[in-house]
Write a structure and sequence with these properties.
The chain is α+β, with helices and mostly antiparallel strands and about 90 residues long. It contains three helices and two strands; from the N terminus they run αβαβα. It has a two-stranded parallel ribbon. The termini are close together.
Length: about 90
């Protein structure tokens, strides 16, 4: 989501409620399920989704995100692969 779209989202919500921004690790537990997770989050009311790119050394993240990164990498996410696998 671009900066302008985020700005528009926050402007529309201003004074009404806080934005619900959900997080999902891409390719966790696999690509197909990851796509369903993101779609379900949006259908359930999330205003925006942050999709984390799995990487080998997520030491600044907590144990849950570290584990989803490890499993996302195992599921086939590679640096050369495009991340345009899902779009609204």
């Amino acid at each position: 989501m671009g900066a302008q779209r985020l700005g528009n989202m926050f402007s529309q919500l201003e004074g009404r409620r806080a934005a619900l921004i959900a997080y999902a690790t891409g390719y966790y537990p696999d690509r197909k399920t990851s796509e369903r997770i993101v779609t379900t989050m949006l259908e359930s009311g999330a205003d925006a989704i942050e999709i984390g790119i799995p990487f080998t050394d997520p030491v600044m993240d907590g144990p849950v995100i570290q584990e989803t990164s490890r499993l996302g990498l195992r599921a086939g996410r590679h640096r050369r692969e495009s991340w345009r696998w899902w779009s609204p």
